[in-house]
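Need Caspase family protein's 3D structure for a figure. Predict it.
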Amino acid sequence: MRRAALLSLLLAAVLAGGARAATVRSLFIGIDEYRYSAGKPGNQDPGFRDLAGAVNDVRLVRDALAGPRFRLPLPPFDPAAGCLAENATSITLVNGCATRDGILQALARQINAAAPGDTLLLYFSGHGSQTLDRTRTQRGGKSSTMLTTDARGGGVWDIIDTDLGQLIDAATARGVNVTSLFDSCNSGTATRDLAGGALRSVPALGTGVTATPDLARRLGIVPVAAAPGRRVHLSAAADGEAARENTLDGTRHGAFTRALVAALAELDRPSHGELAADVRRRMLLAGDTQTPGAEGALGALFLGGAAPRERVFAVTPAAGASLEMQGGSLMGVTEGSRFALYPSRAEAEAGGAALGGGVVRAVGAATATLLLDRALAAAPPRLAAREVRHVPASPPIRLRIDGGEAGERAAIAAAVATLDSFTLADPPAWVLAAEGGGWQLRASDGRAVGGPVPAAAAAATLVKLSRHLLLSALGTPDGGDPAILTFNYACRADDGSFTPLRDAEGNIRRLPLVDNMVQGAPGDLVQIRFQNNGDAPRYPSLLALGEDLSVTPLRQEEPIAPGSALVHPIALAGEGRDAILFLLTEAPIDLSALQQDPVPGAPSQARDLGSPLERLLAAANRGARALEVPRTGGWTARVQPIATRPPTKDRPTCPSS
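Structure prediction for Caspase family protein:
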C-alpha cells in the first residue's frame, strides 16, 4: 500500500511538473517607409507620404512588454541594424521586411506555433485605409485595410480586415487567445492619416479589394481541435477616422501608442476593458480627438494569467463620513480607487457582503482617507478595507503658456500652480497663448477653444477645461450600460411640439451616426430619446457639453420605469462639435454646482453631498483632477458627441403643411 501510494504521489508530481504553462507569442509590425509613397522616384502622387513614428512605436511597445511588469522574452531589436528580429516566441517586422507576404507568413507561423491556451499578441503601427466591403458584412459598407510596405504598386494591395479576420478565426479555432492592437487610421474593425500632425491614413481604394478565399489553408495553418480561444481588438481610431502621431520628447509616436504604453506602465494586471478605458482617458486628457475603440472579451486579463490579489488594509474605526486607512501611495493606493469595508481582514479577503464602501480622496505615503458613501450605522471594534476597483493615478493635464508680458505669464503660472489638474510641461496637450488682446486656449492641434480672455480669467478657463474633460470621460462604455439612446429627426407641430419625422414606410428617421458621432445640420429639429433599459426605475438627467467648454443642465425628471423613455427636443444651431451627457441614477442628484461658474480653488462641498456622483460633479466644477470614477450604486452615464455640419443633399425635410 505504501509503495502504491508513493507511486501515486510520484505520478502526480510528474503530471504536475509536465503541465504546460501558457505562452505569449507576439508579432510586432511598424512601417514608416512605403515603396510607393509620395516623393519616391518614379511614383505619381498616391495621396500619402511616409511616416516618422511607427517604428518608434514598435520599440516603445516592445520595451514596455519586455520590462519588469510583463517580462516577455523578446529578441534584441535595432532598426538601424535590420528590419527583422525574431526568436522562438516573437517576430518583429519593420519597413522593408513588412511586406504583404512577409506579414501574412509571419502571422501564420505564430498561429501554427501556438498551442491551445496560448496568447497571440498582434501589434501594428502604420498607415490604414478603407475599401468597399464586398462581403456586405461591415457597417457603413467599408472594410478597413492595413497598408503594407509594398502595397499600392506592382499588383500588391492592402491587407483587408476580412483577410485578417480569417487568420484570427483560424487561431481562435485552435484554442489560441488573440489580442490585436492597431495604431492606424480606420482601425476600428481590425485592422494613421498622413501629414500635418501627422495623420496615418491613405486614400480609400475605390474599386474594392476582394478577400482571399480560404486564406488560412493557403498559408498552411493547421486546424487543431480545441475549445475556442477568445479575441480582443483595441484600435487607435474608429472607421473613417484619423489616427495622429505627435512629437514627444523629440521623438515621433502615435497618440494611441503613447497612451497605451503609459497605461501599461501604470495598471496592475488590467483587463482589456480597464486598459482600453485608461487609454481613452489619457488620450482625452492629452487633447487627442480621435476615438480609440475596444471590442471582444474585454473582461479577460491583458495577456492572460491570474487576476491580481486584491489589496486589503486595516482601517481605523471612527464615526463620521471619512475613515483613515492604513495604506498609502507606497502600497499602491491611488486617489479615486474604491474600497469595500468588512469587520475583519479575514472577511475582507474572503469577500462577500460588505458593511459599506467608499472612495479614496486623499493619499499619503502610508495612509489614505476613505470618503464613505454613507456613514456606518455602528462602527465595529475593527475594520478592514478591500480594494474592489483600482483607479490608476491620473496624470495632470500638460499646459504651456506662450507669449504675453512677463508679469501676466507669471500671474497665470502662479494660478496654474494652485490647480492640481494641470502642470506646466512640454510637449503640451493644451496651450494658453497671448493673442487677440487676451489669452487664447488652444488644443495641441491648434484648434481654438472659446475666445481670448483677460489674464485674470485664464485660471477660470482652465477649470472649465478640466471640468469639461472630466465630464466627457464619464461616458466610457463598460459593457453593462442599461440605457438605449437615439437621436431622431423631428418636425414642429401646429401647437409647437416636436413629432418624429417618418419615412414612406412609417419608420422614424434617425440622424446618421458616423465614427460614434451623431451628424446633423444647423436648423435640424431633433428628438432625443433616452430609454431606461435596466430592471428598476431610474432618475434621468441631461446636460449639454458645449464646444466652448460650457456645461448646461438641460433637464431632470421624475424616475422613468424600466422600458420607458425620456424624450427631449433640441434644435441644432451653428456648425460645431458639442456633446450631450445623459445620466440615469437610482436617486435624484443635485446639479446645482454645475449651474454656477467654475471657481478655481473653491472649497469643496463634496462631503455634504449625498452620493459619489454628486461629489464628482461638485469636484468637476472646481477643477479637480479628472479621475476615472467607479460605477457604484445604480447609475450610468453616456456621452454622445454631436457634429453640426453643412446640410447634405439627402437631408430629410418635414412635409409642408
